[in-house]
Specification:
The chain is an alpha+beta fold and 281 residues long. It folds into two domains: 1-99, no CATH class; 101-248, no CATH class. Helices cover 26% and strands 33% of the residues. The chain has helices at residues 6-17, 24-33, 39-50, 169-172, 240-243, 250-280, and strands at 21-22, 56-59, 66-73, 78-85, 93-99, 102-106, 118-123, 128-132, 143-148, 151-155, 161-167, 189-194, 199-204, 212-216, 222-227, 232-238. Strands 6-7-8-11-10-9 form a six-stranded antiparallel β-sheet. It has a five-stranded mixed β-sheet with strand order 1-5-4-3-2. A five-stranded antiparallel β-sheet has the order 12-13-16-15-14. Strand 4 (78-85) and strand 5 form a beta hairpin. The longest helix has 31 residues, at 250-280.
Length: 281
């Protein structure tokens, strides 16, 4: 009886049960770095995005060769980001997987009783920072706009701001804002609401402050504060009470989630019908 070739057996299992090729880093994630998600869970993130699931979004990337897809899992209070190749034969490759790293909840200094808590989430692997002005659950998100090449603003269906994304933050922030492990240090983040001017400012504090100036973005009422070293030190949102979404009740979330699920199932049904029609020709 021949000795079992373990590597060959693993290769057969991968070809049989996985729809994507996996990089060594992505494989290790499922049993070493994190263990909340199975390989099937990870691949389902990509399939959900393909099927226009509203709980998934594509993150902006500088390279056209790779794509980052994120999906929220409300039942686990997690967001997962999956980086994959756009081109690849016969299967595209999953390059890496990153789960939501929640840094801090901070209450703005404000007299508005229903002002949302702000959650900062640093995705170390993709070098991104997500800033959630309200809790974003399925059905809440509608569309995103670019304020700059590295700064994206997301909205609900009423065109109110719900979250922000900053990409490749190791280039945007001063090095002293990160720990030795490359994690953004929460003590350098805070937010202040100025009642007189109705402005929300999110600060990224540099321990060695430099002179700063305010720059406009491609989105009206949204500005960036930068210092003389070209690093971001703050984000400003004017007319904040009108432009930033208020927290939703659980009942409102349930209504939006139900509607989003119905829309998702309708798209999946149409997708399957279209696939059957194509295969029948």
């Amino acid at each position: 009886m021949s000795t079992l070739n373990t590597e060959k057996w693993i290769e057969v299992l991968e070809r049989t049960f996985l729809n994507f090729n996996w990089s060594p880093e992505a494989k290790r994630h499922t049993y070493e770095d994190r263990y909340h998600y199975t390989p099937a869970d990870v691949e389902d993130v990509l399939f959900s995005y393909t099927n226009s699931d509203p709980s998934t979004q594509r993150c902006r990337a500088k390279t056209s060769k790779r794509q980052v897809i994120q999906q929220e899992f409300p039942d686990r209070d997690q967001v997962v980001r999956v980086k994959k190749e756009i081109k690849g034969q016969p299967k595209k490759k999953i390059l890496s997987i990153y789960e939501k790293f929640k840094l801090i909840n901070t209450k703005s200094k404000t007299e508005i009783s229903d002002w949302p808590e702000i959650i900062f989430s640093h995705y170390v692997g993709t070098d991104d920072l997500g800033i959630y002005l309200i809790k974003v659950t399925p059905g809440v998100y509608d569309v995103s706009d670019n304020a700059t090449d590295s700064f994206v603003v997301s909205y609900n269906h009423n065109r109110e701001i719900i979250s922000l994304d900053l990409y490749e933050i190791s280039d945007l922030f001063h090095k002293n804002m990160f720990t030795v492990d490359g994690v953004l240090n929460a003590k350098f983040l805070n937010s202040i609401y100025y009642d007189e001017t109705d402005t929300l400012k999110i600060n990224f504090i540099n321990v060695n402050p430099l002179p700063t100036k305010i720059q406009k973005t491609d989105i009206d009422g949204v500005e960036i504060e930068m210092d003389t070293a070209g690093k971001i030190t703050g984000l400003l949102f004017h007319d904040a009470r009108n432009k930033i979404a208020k927290p939703l009740t659980e009942e409102e979330r349930e209504v939006l989630a139900k509607k989003a699920e119905e829309e998702r199932m309708g798209r999946i049904k149409n997708y399957k019908i279209d696939g059957f029609n194509r295969s029948s020709k």
